From TrEMBL:
It comes from Grifola frondosa (Maitake). It comes from the Eukaryota. Residues 1-56 are annotated as: Disordered. Residues 65-256 form the DUF7330 domain. This is DUF7330 domain-containing protein. Residues 41-51 have a biased composition (Pro residues). InterPro entries: DUF7330. Signal peptide: none annotated. Residues 10-19 have a biased composition (Basic and acidic residues). Pfam families: DUF7330 (PF24016).
Length: 296
């Protein structure tokens, strides 16, 4: 009698090992509950707001802000009736506090109402001067300083006191400057530059400004409100109580405009600073010729 035994075929060597590795690398079966519990994480926590870039308008006076490398930005309403306001010392390092105190003493000596300084950072500010609640017998002058060594500056001075004046000093050694002054600005503006053709006027500013004198490094322009625009040329001598502005840049460009009227996307007026100076010299030459010849 013959016995037939079942034959178990042998698997090729290494098959079991490959199947085991494939099972380990394959993704787990789909489970809706598991996915729902792992995909939703906690909401992101917002980082701390920088004191150098406030998100809401700040009402300040005797306010001094300094940063070595960081940028400065924000909206500041300068109220000369407020007591002194400044950054808490706890926000500054020991070396930063020492430098800050030095600048603070300098600003106090200069009687500044607001000073914004940085060495390497950019500065972008919207500034306004708050009107006094009670009329004053004398005009109050508000002094503002904006300065950086290597950064660009963008300042929009959108308002000033009706019964006061503003003294604005804006300077950058290497950066470009864009400055908008309020339509009610009334007084001289001095430009200190070392590059020919570095100053451009936007259209509305060019209509209200007239060149008084110019040299290789300094040019004086007189700006009048639109109400006095018709006789700007005859009233080009600074008087007590007028507004005042100094804009300085060694190697950067300067763009001037009227706040709320001019726009940066507008192409700068062809009547630039040196074109206006040329017209001024030509007018003076004609006046001298008429005086010498006695003819019109």
């Amino acid at each position: 009698m013959t016995m037939i035994l079942p034959i178990n075929p042998e698997k090729p060597k290494g098959v079991d090992e490959q199947q085991s590795k494939a099972a380990e690398s394959s993704p787990p079966p789909y489970s809706p509950n598991a996915n729902a519990s792992t995909s939703a994480g906690p909401p992101p926590t917002p980082g701390p707001l920088s004191p150098f870039q406030p998100q809401t308008p700040q009402r300040v006076n005797r306010f001094f802000l300094f940063s070595r490398h960081g940028s400065l930005s924000g909206t500041y309403l300068i109220d000369p009736t407020l007591p002194r306001s400044s950054l808490p010392p706890a926000l500054l390092s020991h070396s930063g506090l020492k430098k800050f105190r030095k600048l603070e003493r300098s600003a106090e000596k200069e009687k500044l109402n607001a000073a914004f300084r940085t060495r390497h950072g950019a500065i972008s500010l919207d500034l306004g001067v708050v009107d006094a609640e009670q009329p004053r017998a004398e005009k109050e002058r508000v002094r503002i300083l904006v300065s950086t060594r290597h950064g660009h500056i963008n300042v929009n001075l959108f308002g000033k006191q009706e019964d006061g004046s503003v003294d604005l000093d804006v300077s950058s050694r290497d950066g470009h400057i864009v400055l908008f002054i309020p339509p009610t600005f009334n007084g001289p503006i001095a430009f200190n530059t070392r590059r020919a053709g570095a100053v451009n006027f936007l259209p509305a500013f060019a209509q209200r400004a007239s060149v008084v004198r110019a040299s290789d490094r300094e040019t004086l322009v007189f700006f009048r409100p639109v109400a006095n625009g018709a006789d700007t040329a005859s009233k080009s001598t600074p008087a007590e109580g007028d507004d005042c502005c100094v804009v300085s840049s060694r190697s950067g460009r300067v763009t001037m405009g009227v706040s709320g009227v001019d726009r940066m996307e507008t192409k700068p007026s062809a009547i630039g600073l040196f074109k206006q100076f040329g017209d001024f010299v030509e007018a003076q030459a004609k006046a001298l010729e008429i005086k010498l010849t006695g003819s019109v």
